Automatic annotation (TrEMBL):
Coiled coil: none annotated. This is Exopolyphosphatase. PANTHER family: EXOPOLYPHOSPHATASE, RETROGRADE REGULATION PROTEIN 2. The lineage of its organism: Bacteria, Bacillati, Bacillota, Bacilli, Lactobacillales. Gene3D superfamilies: 3.30.420.40, Exopolyphosphatase. Domain 2 (3.30.420.150). It holds the Pfam family Ppx-GppA. Belongs to the GppA/Ppx family. GO terms for biological process: regulation of transcription by RNA polymerase II. Residues 20-306 form the Ppx/GppA phosphatase N-terminal domain.
Amino acid sequence: MNNLVVLDFGSNSVRFSINQITGKNDFKEILRRKATTRLAEGMGLAKGEKRLTQGAIKRTMTAVADFKKIYQQYSDYQVVGIATAAVREAVNRQELLDQVTRLTGCRLQVLSADQETYFDFLAVTNSLSIKDCLIFDIGGGSCELAWVAAGNFQVGVSLPFGAVSLTEQFAAKDLTAANLFAMQRFLQEQFHNLPWLRQAVKLPLVLLGGCNRSVARIKRTEINLQPIDSFHGFKVTTADFQRIYQQLLALSNQQRKEVPGMEALRSDIILAGMTPVVLLQQQSSSPRVIFSESGAREGFIYHQLQE
């Protein structure tokens, strides 16, 4: 097997990559694609349980079928897959898992919260020259937060909120002042329950996730830094990140879509994706953010190669 095809089922989008194995513990990504499927959309609307909607499953399987047409053009490949919070928490997840297996032959590995956090750590520490940081991965349905000291994994946690779920919970598509305050109060309580955060202060935040990628593109567009989509290791001060946040807060959803660098399909969830970062910056006195293009999918590949 020379090519490892990885399917990655997130709460907001499904992605796939084709990775050429170049050594015992090394690989080169040769192709990457993404489809916004909003798998977690509407999950919290059923009382007492979280359930994937039929529309979300259909959108996701359409994307997988499109991906299959692409990777079948390659030879000597193996298909593996991971799924995160939306699938992990859904009572009807088996329906999606079975459909994926029938279409691709791949049995998805549903990552535990701990695995997802650790794979983020593997991805960041294997691809960025950084020894001390907080890693913050904001997904659609959950956030993973890890403290790294001297290059070692200290502690990590998966938090039960994400850009999609916060948008639904606090009507954040067009935030009112009251809903913004309520969301901030909710997030402050979540961070207050992590006593180890009081020790992890004045560290850079390494940011992962689609909303954070949009912020990186907006900033790179502002300063005309090309290519806009290449931002692994790109640094932005906390003050600049919060300036962009404040500017987006003042805009309607339609106006946010027109911001240069903004991914239009994230304009409705980006405020809910950025607010946790701003609250964490305030709590930890973080001086800057560093954007990472590598996340749980790449960490999973490193783990597979080590195995």
